[in-house]
C-alpha cells in the first residue's frame, strides 16, 4: 500500500520531491502525487485568514479516488488552525494528514529567507504528521521527529528521523 501526497494550490516542485523522498525513507512505502487541488475555500476562515485543518483532512479522507492509498498527505502553502490554537503546523487523522508551509519560511518571521532551512522544515513536518497517521504519539525525545513542535525552534531542534523507540513502535 502506498502514500499519496496532495498539493493544494501551488506547491513548489522541489518541496514535493523532497517530501516524497523523505516519506519513502521514513515509512518504506511508495509515494505518489495527485494532481493539484484547488485551494480549499470550504475550509477558509476569512476572519482569521487561515484554513481549518480538519475540513481539509475530511476532504482527503472522503475522496473516492484516494481510497486505494494507505495514507494521504495534503500540503498547503498557507496557514492552518484548529479551534483553541493560534495556529498549527499540521494535523493528522487516521488516514489523512495535512501540513502548512507558510510558517516554515524564515521570511514569515521577518528574517531573510533560508532555502535549506525551509526544505528541512517541510520534510520534518511531513514525516511528523504521517507518523501520527501511522499511530505514533508525541515523543519525549527532543531530537526525534515525533517531538511536539509548539514553535518553529522546536522544529529546528529535531531532525526528520525517528528515535529508536519510535522506529520500534512503527514496526519498521
Ligand atoms: Zn504532532
Ligand atoms: Zn521518538
Q: Which helices and strands occur, and which strands form pairs?
A:
Blueprint: E1 3-8, H1 13-27, E2 31-33, E3 44-45, E4 50-52, H2 53-62, E5 71-76, E6 80-81, E7 90-92, E8 96-100, H3 115-133, H4 152-157, H5 164-170
Parallel strand pairs: 1-2, 1-5, 4-6, 5-8
Antiparallel strand pairs: 3-4, 7-8
Bound molecules: zinc ion (ZN) (2 copies).
Structural features, described:
Helix content is 33%, strand content 17%. By secondary structure, the chain is of the alpha/beta class. The protein has a single domain (3-136), classed as Collagenase (Catalytic Domain) (3-Layer(aba) Sandwich). The strands form two sheets. It has a five-stranded mixed β-sheet with strand order 2-1-5-8-7, sandwiched between helices. Strands 3-4-6 form a three-stranded mixed β-sheet. Helix 1 (13-27) crosses helix 3 (115-133). The two termini are 14 Å apart. The model has no long low-confidence stretch (mean pLDDT 96). The structure holds zinc ion (2 copies). One zinc ion binds at residues 128, 132, 138, 148.
- Work out the number of β strands: 8
What series of H and E elements makes up the topology?
A: EHEEEHEEEEHHH
User: What is the 3D shape?
Assistant: globular
Q: Termini distance? A: 14 Å
Low-confidence stretches: none
User: Which ions, cofactors or small ligands are bound in this entry?
Assistant: zinc ion
Classified by CATH, the class is Alpha Beta
Alpha-beta content class: alpha/beta
Total helix count? 5
Largest sheet: 5 strands, mixed
- CATH superfamily grouping: Collagenase (Catalytic Domain)
Name the helicity range.
25-40%
Strand order of the largest sheet: 2-1-5-8-7
Number of domains: 1
Strand content: 15-25%
Taking all Cα atoms into account, the compactness measure Rg is 15 Å
CATH topology: Collagenase (Catalytic Domain)
CATH architecture: 3-Layer(aba) Sandwich
Mean pLDDT: 96
Amino acid at each position: 500500500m502506498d502514500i499519496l501526497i496532495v498539493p493544494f494550490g501551488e506547491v513548489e516542485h522541489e518541496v514535493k520531491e523532497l517530501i516524497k523522498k523523505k516519506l519513502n525513507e521514513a515509512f518504506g512505502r511508495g509515494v505518489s502525487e495527485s494532481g493539484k487541488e484547488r485551494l480549499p475555500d470550504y475550509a477558509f476562515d476569512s476572519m482569521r485568514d487561515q484554513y481549518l485543518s480538519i475540513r481539509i483532512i475530511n476532504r482527503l479522507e472522503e475522496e473516492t479516488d484516494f481510497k486505494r492509498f494507505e495514507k494521504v498527505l495534503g500540503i498547503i502553502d498557507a496557514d492552518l488552525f484548529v479551534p483553541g490554537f493560534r495556529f498549527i503546523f499540521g494535523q493528522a487523522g487516521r488516514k489523512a494528514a495535512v501540513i502548512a508551509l507558510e510558517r516554515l519560511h524564515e521570511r514569515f518571521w521577518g528574517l531573510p529567507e533560508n532555502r535549506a532551512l525551509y526544505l528541512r522544515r517541510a520534510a520534518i513536518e511531513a514525516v511528523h504528521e504521517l507518523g501520527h497517521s501511522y499511530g505514533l504519539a508525541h515523543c519525549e525525545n527532543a531530537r526525534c521527529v515525533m517531538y511536539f513542535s509548539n514553535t518553529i525552534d522546536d522544529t529546528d531542534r529535531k531532525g526528520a528521523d525517528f528515535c529508536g523507540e519510535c522506529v520500534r513502535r512503527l514496526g519498521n
